[in-house]
Specification:
Helix content: 40-55%
Number of helices: 9
Oligomer: single chain
Length: 371
């Protein structure tokens, strides 16, 4: 008996024939299922919006909104928190069951239905439903664990950073040159770890829908100059020049955006350019009010160009995906560029890269004038 479980669940039966509804409802209620019914597609959609179920038994051929349209709406238009399997019920002379499956239905059964086949397909799809729900719940718990762990990790890392800073400043006594060198290495490693933890936390906030942006006028040229100044010591360590190429009128231009997130975005891009460039320069270009031919829209374009060793063509299409790392010895967590893409998209823009091995890379950010 246990192999046929689960025998609990809320099932919505949608059919324009009262006789068919009565038959299916009687069969399923006898097995202990909770049944609700709808006589047409519009009624079914309204019920699903008000109270989602565990399974939909859906007649294909109904007047008005047929089963194909209901299936399409459930899969593409309804913002459901959980997956709902769909079992199509079709007459023997209905030729195009494949269309319903292509639209997102999970299985079908032909009329006249037999009790054993109906119950077997219902049990199968409810097992699918419960498996998906369990998987989603585990994924949610994993994300929540990562979020909590990441947040808790920040406290000792920040404390360690403060303590290392005090030690470097001689607060607990003068350090010998070898000890100072060791402290510098430890502080740098701690900062790198704190940066990765902060990035992971920000990625989680975006993916969990818990990220709230605060839009205000932002002077892009001023912001980029500020970031270039902050990262200048890193470039100086490698004897790299940071070039700024801004139009004459850029100092007066503002953009509606979240300054903190934009600072995070361009710090990531410029920092990466410095990290992956051994000689030459990093150039930051701001092209205000550039016109796109495809939609005649004026936008801001920011380019971060380097003279590094470039990105292989096979890596470029997946560069902005989650946990994608380059095949070089300086790759990081694989989250930095993914977070950059999420920040740009949150500002209704897009980001892409052009690169040639041995010639360097150019990361190009498109931001609308009005965000």
């Amino acid at each position: 008996m246990s192999s046929k479980s689960p025998r609990t669940g809320k099932i919505l039966v949608v059919d324009d024939s009262p006789d068919n509804i009565f038959l299916v409802k009687t069969i399923l209620e006898t097995e202990g299922y909770i049944i609700s019914t709808a006589e047409n597609g519009a009624q079914a959609m309204a019920q699903l919006q008000a109270s989602p179920c565990d399974l939909v038994l859906l007649d294909l051929m109904m007047p008005g909104m047929d089963g194909y349209e209901v299936t399409r709406c459930i899969r593409s238009e309804m913002n459901l928190q959980q997956y709902i399997p769909i079992l199509l019920i079709t007459a023997h002379d209905t030729p195009n069951v494949a269309q319903g499956l292509d639209l997102g239905a999970d299985d079908f059964i032909r009329k006249p239905v037999t009790v054993d086949e109906l119950l077997a397909r219902v049990r199968s799809l409810l097992r699918l439903k419960h498996s998906i729900d369990e998987r989603d719940e585990i994924a949610l718990q994993r994300q929540d664990f990562v979020s909590r762990l990441t947040h808790d990790l920040r406290t000792p890392l920040v404390a360690a950073d403060r303590m290392l800073s005090l030690l470097q400043q001689g607060a607990l006594g003068e350090l010998s040159p070898p000890m100072q060198e060791v402290m510098t290495i430890m502080a740098r490693s701690n900062i790198n770890l704190l940066t990765m933890v902060n990035t992971l936390l920000e990625v989680y906030r975006f993916e969990a829908g818990r990220k709230t942006l605060t839009f205000q006028p932002v002077n892009l040229s001023q912001l980029l100059k500020e970031i270039a100044g902050e990262l200048a010591p890193l470039a100086a360590e490698k004897a790299l020049a940071i070039n700024l190429e801004f139009p004459d009128n850029s100092t007066a231009k503002t953009f509606m955006g979240d300054r903190l997130e934009l600072h995070r975005l361009f710090t990531n891009l410029i920092g990466n350019a410095i990290k992956f460039t051994d000689s030459g320069s990093v150039t930051i270009r701001l092209n205000c009010e550039h016109q796109l031919e495809k939609n005649d829209q004026f936008i801001n374009i920011i380019e971060v160009a380097d003279t590094g060793y470039g990105i292989p063509p096979e890596e470029q299409p997946t560069l902005f995906e989650r946990f994608r790392q380059g095949n070089h010895n300086r790759s990081g967590s694989g989250l930095g560029l993914y977070l950059a893409r999420r920040i740009v998209e949150a500002h209704q823009g897009f980001i892409h890269v052009t690169s040639e091995l041995g010639q360097g890379s150019i990361f190009i950010v498109h931001l609308p004038i009005k965000s």
